[in-house]
Amino acid sequence: QQDATSISGKLRIDIPPGIAKSLLLPRLSEFLYLHPGIELELSSHDRPVDILHDGFDCVIRTGALPEDGVIARPLGKLTMVNCASPHYLTRFGYPQSPDDLTSHAIVRYTPHLGVHPLGFEVASVNGVQWFKSGGMLT
Questions:
Q1: Burial bucket for residue 67 (CB in 10 Å: 0-12, 13-18, 19+)
Q2: Which of 24-38, 51-65, 83-97, 113-127 is predicted with the least confidence, judged by mean pLDDT?
Q3: What CATH number should be reported for the domain whose range is 4-59?
Q4: Model-level pTM greater than 0.90?
């Protein structure tokens, strides 16, 4: 069995910016202290990557696991929420269900520049549902 300091070499990781900021970066100094032989190359994107073609050792993503033959394992669960300002809710009303969001102006997120999502996913105990969005800003 090797000790932690004997682990060495280049480690190339791609991770979404939000996960990097909240989970990885706060622990990075300790990891590098414990593993001084690691030369870390950290890339932070949400775009799909080809692990082999792009030369990554590890890619972390959120959302559904891919069905393209990539070996993937869930690492945990993230909680995401939809938010609105009090002013917006006073002006346009409170949505009572995800279906109501289709008539609301929402800020849509897309990890791919130039590709605009036509809706959004909502996960619940009943599974993941897709809703058409009334978004005004991507």
A1: exposed
A2: 113-127
A3: 3.40.190.10
A4: no
Question: What does the alpha-carbon distance between residue 118 and residue 120 come to, in Å, rounded to a whole number?
Answer: 7
Residues with Cβ < 8 Å from 53, sequence gap 6 or more? none
pLDDT at 71 exceeding the cut of 70: yes
The ranges assigned to domains in the chain are 4-59, 86-132
Residue 19 is encoded by which pair of tokens?
Answer: 């996960």
CA nearest neighbour of 58 among 72, 76, 68: 72
Structure-block tokens of residue 30: 């300790």
Q: Which helix or strand (DSSP H or E) is residue 54 part of?
A: helix 51-54
Q: Token digits for 104?
A: 């609301």
Position 117 confidence tier, pLDDT thresholds 50, 70, 90: low
